[in-house]
Amino acid sequence: MISNINTQSMAYVQASSPKDNESKGVSKTEKSEELDKVSSLKKQIQEGTYQVDLFKTAQSITEELL
């Protein structure tokens, strides 16, 4: 049988834990900007206007390898 004291302390621990956004340091504006980028890319891909910048892609790959 679970006592009332244990359930109250568990509720306090859960309520005082940081939220995912706070622990990652991500604000709502950063998320909305990322969503705008994703929706923009999705629209370009659907319309067939998305173009890959090979120079930037190669540069990113090179930086990751070094």
Order of helices and strands: HHHH
Q: Which structural class matches the secondary elements?
A: mainly alpha
Beta-strand fraction estimate: under 5%
- Our count of helices gives 4
Q: What would you call the shape?
A: flat
State the separation between the terminal residues, measured CA to CA: 58 Å
Number of domains: 1
Give the structure's gist in a few sentences.
The chain contains four helices and no strands. The mean pLDDT is 75. It has 66 residues and is an all-alpha fold.
SSE layout and pairings?
Elements: H1 4-16, H2 20-24, H3 28-47, H4 54-65
Key terms:
flat; mainly alpha; 66 residues; 4 helices
Structure commentary:
By secondary structure, the protein is mainly alpha-helical. It has one domain. The protein is 76% helix and 0% strand. The chain is built from four helices and no strands. The chain is flat, with a radius of gyration of 22 Å. The model has no long low-confidence stretch (mean pLDDT 75).
